[in-house]
Design goal:
By secondary structure, the chain is an alpha/beta fold. About 35% of the residues lie in helices and about 20% in strands. It has one domain (about 5-225): Alpha-Beta Barrel (TIM Barrel), CATH 3.20.20. Strand 2, helix 3 (about 60-70) and strand 3 form a beta-alpha-beta unit. Helix 3 (about 60-70) packs parallel to helix 4 (about 90-95). It is globular. Bound molecules: D-xylitol-5-phosphate (DX5) and zinc ion. Zinc ion binds near residues 21, 46, 48, 186 and 206.
Length: about 230
Amino acid sequence: MSRGRNCISGLRDATPAVLPSLLLCDFGNLEREIEHLEDAGVAALHLDVMDGVFVPNFTYGMTIVSALRKLTELPLDVHLMMVHPEKYIGQFCDAGADIITVHAEATNDAPAILKQIRDLGVAAGIAVNPETPISEIAAAIPHADVALVMSVHAGFGGQSFIAQVLSKFEEIRSLPGGAEIMLEIDGGINDDTIGQATEHGAQLLVAGSAIFQHEDYAAAIENLMSQVKCLK
Ligand code: DX5
Ligand code: ZN
């Protein structure tokens, strides 16, 4: 089984799972941060790659992904917020990504990019910003392992949750290829919003400020998980 398929089946057993978003963490002490998150028992790490063009913010690229790959065995869920992602899929695969998610708004041929990712043995994800209707990714769903629904406008941590996106999960499930796809939500997940996210079907819950604003990551994650609700 490919690295990506392995990762997805492992994550499926772990859902609902909080995935820490490495955007607001202490990059000056990455090794300590990863140890702290591993001790907290997280199932994967969410890596926010931003190019300063697709989003008005800039974070990191393949070098940090490679550095993280050397630090941990945890699955690396790489969220590409960039234009022309097709140019970098191979490099992020070589850097050690287990899941590579591209934005529907960054391509006019999502099925082709998702196939390119899967052909490298990596799990493929398709992401949609809050204003993008699910109809835009209907053709991509059968080619994806993960659908990432943004509950904030991609680009920054610490934004407010956009609850209107929650209906997208049911829409995705009703599409061809939507029954099995892993559903991920990203942005504004905290103890007030994680309940509604999970009762609407989200399985992977990306959290940045709700974890990294606290000293004790395990306690913060435990608190988030205590608010998880069953699918409605
Ligand atoms: C935003 C990123 C999210 C964000 C989450 O573009 O994709 O992963 O960092 O941060 P919080 O949980 O603080 O909204
Ligand atoms: Zn993200």
